[in-house]
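Q: Hi! First time doing this. I have a protein sequence and I read that you can turn it into a structure. Is that right? Here it is:
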Amino acid sequence: MVKAGIPAYQSQRRYWNNERKETLAAWIFLAPEVIGVLLLSVFPILFSLFLSFCDWNLVGGLSAIKWVGLDNYRALLDDDKIFMALKNNITYTACVVPVGIVLALLLSVVIHSKVYGKEYFKVAFFIPYISSIVAIGAVWSALFHPSQGPINRFLIGLGIANPPKWMADTHYSLTAIIVIAIWAALGYQIVIFIAGLSGIPEELYEAADIDGANQAQQFTRITLPLLGPTLSFLIITTLMASFKVFDLIAFLTDGGPNESSTVLVYRIYDEGFHNFRMGYASAISWLLFLIVGAITLITWKIQRTKVEE
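A: Yes, that's right. Below is the predicted 3D structure, encoded as structure tokens:
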């Protein structure tokens, strides 16, 4: 509505001032990204939540969606494969996270302080992280070959008559996956730790030397406390990644043999794209979301409490 005595064009000119024009221009530039996020992220998440309460055979199209309420979640409680996958996920996480972080921390401290040609070692350790998972799987599949692989040939040379069949053995398939995962992620963790170590002032170590502190005391009293934020970041990201492991298992074992290396993400893939039970697969994905969210929240709370202390 135009005020009395003020022409319409002047009123419009006052409304479209520079600030509003800049805001409109900003939204125009942001619109493609916002639309992309809504269509490719928000909508699939909400649709997945809806499907978790439905029975949907993917081949039947959208018309085959049937509301079943909590039936999919009740079915999770009676599915032995889900419990096996959850057990394997916990075992995998309990091994990969602490072992990988401890190894990366020790190696990063050594590389950062004492190794000649440290830039070479940074690159050498980081290469597996940026390599194709197919290439990594192919190399380790050859190394773990039951009869001709170098690992078993070495064990036979040590006098072990019947070495493990590794990925073809129900008792060792998950162990082989864990070893590969630790090795593949080591370079990334080392680079992050070295970045954190670079931010610690050398004067602190010099003062500790003057006070007579040995290497172990400097590590526990200076290095570890000042690496707290870096350590917290790696623990949370590694925890999340460990519960979402899929590519290595899909390429090397297909969850077998006899479900011995199956995990929750592989169960989602198998139920959704092999058995075409998209509703049940969505229910598993939301179970995984709750588990990862709870673990992340607990870890964050613990780290925050330590920082406040």
